[in-house]
Amino acid sequence: MHHEHHVTSSETIRDIVIGMSDGLTVPFALAAGLSGAISSSGLVVTAGIAEIVAGSIAMGLGGYLAGRTEVDHYQSELKREYEEVERLPEQEKAEVREVFAGFGLSETLQHQIADEMTKDKKQWVEFMMRYELGLEEPNANRAKKSAVTIGISYIVGGIIPLTPYILISHAQEALFYSCGLTLICLFIFGYFKSKMTGQPALTGACKVVVIGALAAGAAFVMAKLITGK
Predict the structure, then answer these.
(1) Which of 21, 23, 63, 96 could form a cystine bridge with 150, CB 3.0-4.6 A?
(2) Where are the beta strands (DSSP E) in 9-62?
(3) d(CA 28, CA 129)
(4) Residue (of 22, 44, 49) closest to 175 by Cα position
C-alpha cells in the first residue's frame, strides 16, 4: 500500500518558531554588544531582561494584530461576497463556472454544478471565498493564542543567552559561555525547524547559527569601536 508523507506545520508551531528565533537572536546580540563595552554581568542581565520583557510584548502584540487583521479581512470579504451574490447572481454563477473550467470540466458539467451549488447561498459564498479569493475562515480565537504563544516563546528563547551572565559575574567571561550555549541551541532549533518544514535539516541549522553569530559579532564589534576598548 502506498503511503503519502506530508509535513504540515501548525499555526502554533509557526508562532513558536517566530518567538524562539527572535528570542534567541536579539537578546544574544544585545548581551554580546554590551559585553564589548562593560565588564559587569549584572548590567547585561538587567538590560537583557528589560529587552526580553519589551520584546515579548512587542512580538506578542504583533501576533495579535496579525491575527485580528486576518479575521477582519475575512469578514469584510465575506460580507462583500454575500452582497455580490444578491446583486449580481448571474455574474457570480459565471465565476463558479470559471473555477470548474480551470479544473478541466466540460461546459455542460460546469453549468450543472453551478446551478446545483448556487441553490444554497451559504455553500455558494463559502465556495467563492475559498476558490475565487483563496481565503480560509480563520479561527476567531487565533489572535489571542498567537500573542501568548509568541510572547512565551520569545521569553524562553531570550533567557538562554542570558543564563551565563546570571551565573558568572564578569561579562566577557560569561559571553564565552553564552556564545557556546546559544549557538548550540540555535543549531538544535534550526535543525528541528527545517525538519518540520521539509527543508534540509543540517543546512537550515547552519543558516540559523550563522545568522545568530553574525548578529552577535556585529553588536560586539560595534560596541568595541564606540567605546574604544
Answers:
(1) 63
(2) none
(3) 43
(4) 44
pLDDT score, position 53 = 92
**Cα–Cα distances in Å, from 226 out to 34, 91, 220?**
11, 65, 10
- Please, are residues 168 and 177 in contact by the beta-carbon 8 Å criterion? yes
Place of cell 559571553: 175
pLDDT tens-digit profile of 164-221?
999 988 888 888 888 888 888 888 887 877 777 677 778 877 887 888 778 777 777 7
* DSSP 8-state assignment for residue 134: -
Give yes or no for residue 92 having a pLDDT over 80: no
In residues, how long is the chain? 229
Q: Using DSSP, state whether 38 is helix, strand or coil.
A: coil
Strands (E), the chain: none
Quote the Cα angle for 55-144-212, to 5°: 30
Q: Enter the C-alpha cell of residue 114.
A: 453551478
Please indicate whether residue 48 or residue 122 has the higher confidence score (pLDDT): 48
Q: Is the per-residue pLDDT at 1 higher than 50? A: no
Find out whether 99 and 110 touch, Cβ atoms under 8 Å: no
Residues 34, 47: contact at Cβ < 8 Å? yes
Buried/exposed code over 94-114 (b: 16+ C-beta within 10 A; e: otherwise):
ebbbebbeeeeeeeeebeebb
Q: What is the pTM of this model?
A: 0.72
**Band (78; pLDDT cuts 50, 70, 90):** confident
Distances (CA, A) of 215 to 31, 32, 58, 222: 11, 9, 20, 11
